[in-house]
Specification:
The chain has 262 residues and is α/β, with parallel strands linked by helices. It has helices spanning 52-59, 91-98, 116-126, 132-145, 161-173, 191-206, 218-224, 242-247, 252-261, and strands at residues 14-23, 26-36, 41-45, 67-72, 75-76, 79-82, 85-88, 101-104, 179-183, 211-214, 227-232, 235-240. The strands form 3 sheets. A 6-stranded mixed sheet has the order 8-9-10-3-11-12, sandwiched between helices. Strands 2-1-4-5 form a 4-stranded antiparallel sheet, covered by helices on one side. Helix 3 runs parallel beside helix 5. The radius of gyration is 19 Å and the shape is globular. It binds adenosine-5'-diphosphate (ADP) and magnesium ion. It is found in: Cell membrane. One of its GO terms (molecular function) is ATP binding. Residues 14-258 form the ABC transporter domain.
Length: 262
């Protein structure tokens, strides 16, 4: 076999297998299968209520699926093998796993009482990965990367929504996660602030960071996604390269959704 034909033998960055999630009687994730390769950018589309946020929360183990499993770099999330059986991990072990996943929310969720610098530096110190001076040096680097080197001493309320979201991205990067999950990162922003946040995400995508992004920004998806996943009613209806899913969707539900958002 030549190198060009070599298969990627690394474990998937994220593997979601046969995942089912119910809220009461509502079947919110209905047998979801998703594989994200290292360095890949996956964009998840779908109507409101289709289960996109729940899928991200299951990947991050903020929600526990009733069936199926999720692994990160080949390691199961939330459980460990115990002979033939799976045992639940301790809360502490789950927190350690969660540290390998970055999560960027629609509403930024910064700590209001901490400076921008400390927002970014907090997690590596709290998890014992870095000393405070080391974490602050890293935070300054990361703030430079998102174009906010001059805002280190500001507080979140003094920043625009776009700036706050860029701080949230720097904060997610501070734990050097294997994958970053974005849940509608630009939905809460005024239109003129969307571009600056998308530019930072694009920069991460180009640098080979593994990303899973829920967004309604179709043009952005077309530009940066390796794969587009369309969800409806808790199922992945179709997935593939953007040119396939966005320009030649196979399913009526995908066509219908795209006709509404494009
Ligand atoms: P999306 O992000 O695609 O809009 P969600 O994953 O947020 O969809 O929600 C999918 C469905 O699950 C919705 O009907 C929502 O109301 C329901 N849901 C989400 N979270 C909860 C919860 N914690 N308790 C009960 N129902 C929930
Ligand atoms: Mg959502």
């Amino acid at each position: 076999m030549t190198t060009a034909e070599a298969v990627d033998v690394r474990p998937a960055a994220v593997e979601v297998h046969a995942v089912h999630k119910w809220f009461g009687a509502q079947h919110v994730l209905d047998g979801v299968e998703l594989t994200v390769r290292p360095g890949e950018v996956t964009v998840v589309l779908g109507p409101s209520g289709s289960g996109k946020s729940t899928l991200l929360r299951v990947i991050n183990h903020l929600e526990k699926p009733e069936a199926g499993h999720v692994s990160l770099n080949g390691e199961p999330i939330g459980v460990r093998r115990h002979g033939e059986r799976l045992k639940e991990l301790s809360e502490r072990a789950i927190l350690a796993q969660r540290g390998r996943i970055g999560f960027v929310f629609q509403n930024f969720n910064l700590f209001p009482h901490l400076s921008v610098l400390d927002n970014v530096a907090a997690a590596p110190v709290a998890t014992g990965k870095l000393t405070k001076p080391e974490a602050q040096a890293l935070a300054r680097d990361l703030l430079g990367r998102v174009g906010l080197a001059d805002k280190a001493d500001a507080y979140p309320r003094q920043l625009s929504g776009g700036q706050q979201q860029r701080v949230a991205i720097a904060r997610a990067l501070a734990l050097r996660p294997g994958v970053i999950l974005f849940d509608e990162p630009t939905s809460a922003l005024d239109p003129e602030l969307v571009g600056e946040v998308l530019a930072v995400i694009k920069d991460l995508a180009r640098s080979g960071t593994t990303l899973v992004i829920v967004t309604h920004e179709i043009g952005f998806a077309r530009e940066i996604a390796d794969r587009v996943v369309f969800m409806d009613e808790g199922r992945i209806v179709e997935q593939g390269p953007p040119a396939q899913v966005l320009d030649h969707p196979e399913h009526d539900r995908t066509r219908d959704f795209l006709s509404k958002v494009l």
